[in-house]
Amino acid sequence: RCHQRSVAMLDIPFPPFCAFLGSLGLLCVALVGVWCQHWRGGFSLDGGSRTFNWHPVLMVTGLVVLYGAAALVYRVPNTWSGPKLPWKVLHGGLALGAFVLTVLGLAAVFRFHNSNGTPNMYSLHSWMGLGTVLLFSCQWAAGFGAFLLPWAPAWLRQLYKPIHVFFGSTILMLSVASCVSGINEKLFFSLKNGTTQYKLLPAEAVFANTLGILILLFGVLVVAALARPSWKRPDSDSPDSRQ
Asked: What span, in angstroms and rounded, lies between the C-alpha atoms of 101 and 103?
């Protein structure tokens, strides 16, 4: 009985959890914007360091927060009844929006590197980030072909669905890892010659480290929500659900 009571206390409804998670995601976006505006000089499109500042903002917004929102579409109870196609379109549209922001974020960092003679793709962060984006693009294209186009057979959708779900969570965690490693890399490069060293934990370091922890927390909570059995969309054998 004690165990059942403990489980009942932890079984919170999805809507308040979703509201908390949405607030956390917006907080992450706001904090990365404050970091780039207050400590890194703001934003520009001139190819300088202020052009680079678009990179962390767009990556956190697209690759983490918007992608996390797309992953949780089918956990909303309203999606459990009625036609499934509109929710498929919403899921795919949010993922596509995340992909567009991610590509713009990559364009910003490549333009900054090329304008300043900085080599591209030499760090672990860059390898992990580009690999995540490539995997994301394959995931979106395969999901579009399997679940949105009308000619995909039912057996193919059933076969591919667990693979799609697995890589969805994997891409999100890779995105979080890429963002956190990118924050750390930026601090190592920025907080040196002429500034307070990173190891002395100036205010910018504390702020950016906190941002990284919040991004990690957001990713963990999204994956936890995806894994929670009571929040999963019930399977249905109706023709409408199979489409």
From this structure: 5
